[in-house]
Amino acid sequence: MSNIPSELKYATSHEWVRNEGDGTVTVGITEHAQDLLGDMVFVELPDVGDEVSTGDDICVAESVKAASDIYAPVSGKVVAVNEDLEDSPELLNSDAFGDGWLFKVKMDDAGELENLLDAQGYKDSIDE
Amino acid sequence: MTNKTVLHAKHLASGAKMVDFHGWEMPINYGSQIEEHHAVRQNAGMFDVSHMTIVDVQGKDAKAFLRRLVINDVAKLTVAGKALYTGMLNEAGGVIDDLIIYYFSETNYRLVVNSATREKDLAWMNKQSTGFDITITERPEFGMIAVQGPQAKAKVANLLTPAQIVAVEGMKPFFGVQVGDLFIATTGYTGEEGYEIIVPDNAAEDFWQKLLDVGVAPCGLGARDTLRLEAGMNLYGLDMDETVSPLAANMAWTISWEPTDRNFIGREVLTTQKTAGDQLKLVGLVLTEKGVLRTGQKVISEFGEGTITSGTFSPTLGHSVALARVPRSVKVGDTVDVEMRKKLVKVQVTKPSFVRNGAQVF
Question: Which residues contact B115 (CB under 8 A, 6 or more apart)?
Fold first, then answer.
């Protein structure tokens, strides 16, 4: 079973969300998701400054196997993207919860985090 | 029911991720399909291809039967062990399967056909055998291991007996030889040098382990697909099937038109198609910017539309390549559009071959 850190929040569409405590969150895809997708070859990131709404497809992770949309788990403004992924998309495979992070969003409403799953909830969602 | 090859336990022991492949539980990768791909291009990798179907065709009329059954002419095979690649057509000129035929004598041939098409292939062969004095015998009691890459032959040599080493020394491409337990052939599906080795079931695990021990990397179906696509080799079911003429699948080179009185199945239809020049053709597509060409995407050219039959990311080239069926007037060197994820991207048309022996060839 893949690793599901308990300190993170999750979307059923396999994004993880880390609350940085300063009104921003860091977003990536889970180890389970990268395992399903296989070797990553391209990542299309959003632009810093983009205004995004929860559920928007704002990023594409393309593996040898398939292209997969990644959705904004919260509404807000993109304040950083992981440019290392341009040259090293494999970071999504090797370190999904760390160096393979995708982007950071300054949240419009921190209350939105309550709508996301906790680790157990996410685990249940992928066991189904 | 899911079939397992004789090497199933070895795959699990190497940490393989297993998937269902047309009823066979096969390794898709052992961690990273890209690393496995590079192992074959740069060093040596091996694939369990035991799921493939081996069929021996023997008897007085074996040669006459095969000259009727397939579009290439087995009469060209005169040296024991020589093989050829070809297609088996239905009466409408569609490809039932592609296959390799090894010649041992005019009364003894070995065919290797796809596993996904096993039942219909055997049914078709048996149906066509009426009136021919032959036996058609499936040989499920063997495993098959493809060892491929620039170091493949040198590594395999460590496992061979002196007699086997002598037998394979200097063996040209597309030959096979039975020495002792092993049938060793200079064939493959990667565009690299190497062997495909048929080994008795009871010796397969040991052979696989010895290959692991000499540093041959186990490779799954994922790498097998990116390697064959870089090499521009067709995959049955994607690049051609029963609705597709070999003329539209880059298989014209596997048709023997001479002698003109050889009445192979599908000849009449192919002759009409050839004269009309109305078939689509299979070309290569190259996308050097971001994104991956995928099966089923639409190709738009000034001469009309086409379809990508197989597309992937090429680990060797670092960008995407594809095989596509397009109108015959589209030329190598043209730029065409591909509809990818709601937008059009420009791609270059090439010959349907991208990498051979580790290097770009278009």
Answer: B21, B22, B23, B24, B51, B52, B53
